[in-house]
Design a protein that fits this description.
The structure holds two protein chains of two kinds.
Chain A: E1 3-7, E2 10-12, E3 18-25, E4 33-39, E5 45-51, E6 57-59, E7 67-72, E8 77-82, E9 91-99, E10 103-108, E11 112-116
Parallel strand pairs in A: 2-11
Antiparallel strand pairs in A: 1-3, 3-8, 4-5, 4-9, 5-6, 7-8, 9-10, 9-11
Chain B: E1 4-7, E2 10-13, E3 19-25, E4 38-43, E5 50-54, E6 58-59, E7 67-72, E8 75-80, E9 89-95, E10 102-103, E11 107-111
Parallel strand pairs in B: 2-11
Antiparallel strand pairs in B: 1-3, 3-8, 4-5, 4-9, 5-6, 7-8, 9-10, 9-11
The chains are: A mainly beta, B mainly beta.
Chain lengths: 118, 112
């Protein structure tokens, strides 16, 4: 079965760090452009970052310099390392599988909640 | 950044009746390869989003044929030919022409 299983998330203090992971099963990550999308409570979807099949990365301006996306092809898993977390980063974070070119997000993880609070 | 604007914000629907959602982008989503980089997603209550339509008009695998996407340039439409009770949730359009990828604000569909 094709699926994305997310781990990580939780409560972190402002300024803290957290790493989210997204493990793929039923397919090989290599070919796809993998994405992170977040959703603040009661709000809409916001794209956060992507890593393509050659390891090139892109970020939303709001997280650039604080978040790092990476992939471990041997583990068929990709990650979002988040540093210097702010209250406005609190959200449910979803990982998603995209086609080359970053469209067609046809598989999504179950989502993981990140809470930033002291 | 490309701004995506959806209308209406809320759409009460009657099962069996058609429904339509509009999505406009602040610039053309036409790529030089001839494709429009516009996707539609549905987020059902308590669930992750799911892909409905990609590249403007291509129905994703497993999506019922009552869903259709159309449009070009900056104006796009998602149509549901006959709404069913399982179609409730928030519909989002997303442009994938350039980063940052951007979503519309969402259209909440509810049964009357």
């Amino acid at each position: 079965e094709v699926q994305l299983v997310q781990r990580g998330g939780g409560l972190v203090q402002p300024g803290g760090s957290l790493r989210l992971s997204c493990a793929a099963s039923g397919f090989i990550l290599d070919y796809y452009w993998m994405q992170w999308v977040r959703q603040a409570p009661g709000k809409g979807l916001v794209w956060v970052s992507r890593i393509d099949n050659e390891g090139r990365t892109k970020y939303a301006d709001s997280v650039k310099g604080r978040f790092t996306i990476s992939r471990d092809n041997a583990k068929n898993t990709f990650y979002l390392q988040m540093y210097s977390l702010r209250a406005e980063d609190a959200a449910v974070y979803y990982c998603a599988r995209g086609a080359p070119g970053s469209y067609k997000f046809d598989q999504w993880g179950q989502g993981t909640l990140v809470t930033v609070s002291s | 950044d490309i701004v995506m604007t959806q209308s209406p914000l809320s759409l009460p629907v009657t099962p069996g009746e058609p429904a339509s959602i509009s999505c406009r982008s602040s610039q053309s989503l036409l790529h030089s390869n001839g494709n429009h980089y516009l996707d539609w997603y549905l987020q059902k209550p308590g669930q992750s989003p799911q892909l409905l339509i990609y590249l403007g008009s291509n129905r994703a695998s497993g999506v019922p044929d009552r869903f259709s996407g159309s449009g070009s340039g900056t104006d796009f439409t998602l149509k549901i030919s006959r709404v069913e009770s399982e179609d409730v949730g928030v519909f989002y359009c997303m442009q994938a022409l350039e980063t940052p990828l951007t979503f519309g604000g969402g259209t909440r569909v509810a049964i009357k």
